[in-house]
Design goal:
Layout: E1 9-13, E2 16-19, H1 20-27, H2 34-47, E3 53-55, H3 58-66, H4 70-77, E4 87-93, E5 107-113, E6 118-122, H5 131-141, E7 150-153, H6 166-183, H7 202-221
Parallel strand pairs: 3-4, 6-7
Antiparallel strand pairs: 1-2, 4-5, 5-6
């Protein structure tokens, strides 16, 4: 059976394969999917290359939250080397069905900063929709980071003004946190990155959607290297 145009592969970036349907998502008022978030996390990792920083792919964060077998969780955790990371970012989705790929309806971000020894949850919904899911990831992850870190909801998280930009807020906040950490984050354990969140406005989020779309198209147009 011939593939539909939506299934056509348009870009391979590191370990992420993007398809035409991903561009369609970015072009319209749609919630982001796992692939777009994984792609941008991979891109941000290339902007801030450091073994101290880890941006966890959505599929891994989801399995950490929902895996029923502790032994299997260990298999996922050990390659991440969480105990030596200084900054860990995990995308949180409200999907609880392991049989449903690309499920869920809301994204948020859980960030761990070792210098301040705290997990901070950033939820762009007005009612912190993902608090339960975020705490589940925190509880499972805690034994692997070799510390007794605390958990907090961030009251200063910028709030979305529509029902579909939660994933873009996750990406925008993740980029702000990585920039903060790379510049001077370890010097400000008390205040963390909170004052920098003012950069994440509704207009900036709208522009970021276009920015990611342009980034993908630019990578598509870039000449391929020959081995």
């Amino acid at each position: 059976m011939a593939k539909s145009k939506a299934d056509e592969k348009i870009l391979s970036y590191n370990d992420v394969v993007l398809r035409q349907s991903d561009l369609d998502i970015l072009n319209g008022p749609n919630c982001l999917n796992d692939r777009i978030i994984e792609f941008y996390f991979s891109y941000v990792s290339s902007l801030f290359p450091s073994d101290n920083i880890l941006l966890v792919p959505p599929s891994i964060a989801f399995w950490i939250k929902e895996c029923p077998d502790p032994a299997s969780v260990k298999d996922f955790m050990e390659p991440l080397h969480l105990s030596r990371r200084k900054l860990i970012l995990l995308p949180i989705n409200d999907n609880s069905d392991v049989c449903m790929a690309e499920g869920g309806s809301h994204w948020s971000l859980l960030a761990f900063d070792r210098n301040s020894n705290v997990f901070v949850h950033h939820d762009s919904s007005s009612g912190c929709m993902n608090e339960y899911h975020s705490k589940q990831v925190y509880k499972v992850t805690l034994p692997y980071i070799a510390t007794n870190a605390t958990y907090k909801e961030c009251p200063d998280t910028p709030k979305q003004v529509n029902g579909y930009d939660c994933g873009v807020y996750v990406l925008a906040i993740a980029r702000v946190i990585c920039q903060w950490f790379a510049n001077s984050g370890t010097q400000y354990a008390d205040t963390l990155w909170f004052s920098h969140l003012e950069q994440v406005s509704p207009s900036a989020v709208s522009e970021m959607r276009n920015e990611i779309l342009g980034l993908i198209k630019g990578l598509m147009a870039a000449p391929k290297s020959v081995a």
